[in-house]
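Ticket #4471: structure output looks truncated?

Reporter: J.K.
Steps to reproduce: submitted the chain below (219 residues) through the standard prediction queue, then opened the result file.
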Amino acid sequence: MTVATRAAEPNLSLAVTHLMKGVLYREAHPVPWQHLTQLQAQVRDYVAVMGLTVVVDEAEGYAYLRSRDDDPDDAQASAIPRLVPRRSLSFHVSLLLALLRKKLAEFDADNADSRLVLTRQQIIDMLATFLPTSLGEARLVDQIDAHLGKVVDLGFLRKVKDGDASYEVRRILKAYVDGQWLADFDARLAEYAAELTGARPDAPGGDAPGAGPGAEDET
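Returned output as attached by the reporter:
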């Protein structure tokens, strides 16, 4: 067997290691993605002993790890300590994710391109509507930048390396905000507006999928 043949063999360790580090993208990680798709059954068996399951979306080109105890019917998994802790998102971070998901749905309906890129100013304009008008402009922008940074840390946005402040909306967001949730988006916006006026004491939030980027972490 030649060196080239050995290098092409599926490698379980390579696939699992990349998944443990965070969301695995077909475009960004073509080699480990190939190993994962060839070894899906073995990867599932390997991570199952740690109370995890692997979610692979071949149409969108991403994969991530999720705790098996998210499945209420899996009694065995509920007895295993959670390796991927749960993260509660703040009101405005949750709102920003919803707005980005809506933009992604609109983009997919009108474009053949797979990459949605938004400028920092577009994101500021999108979220500013839902911030108190009493904030000064400088403070408002600072707050939005903080929320934007959090979404980048979660792995739902990736800063584009160019001369402008632009961000790619990562398609893993579709796993976090699903189509059914998006169908109720207008009603949820009314809830967000009520929250801003103090009509509701509880802010909507959510749990992010996966390990690494998009990881869950109790806060």
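Triage note (M.O.): checked the attachment and the full token line is present. Confidence is low (pLDDT under 50) at residues 1-7, 77-83, 199-219.
Status: closed, working as intended.
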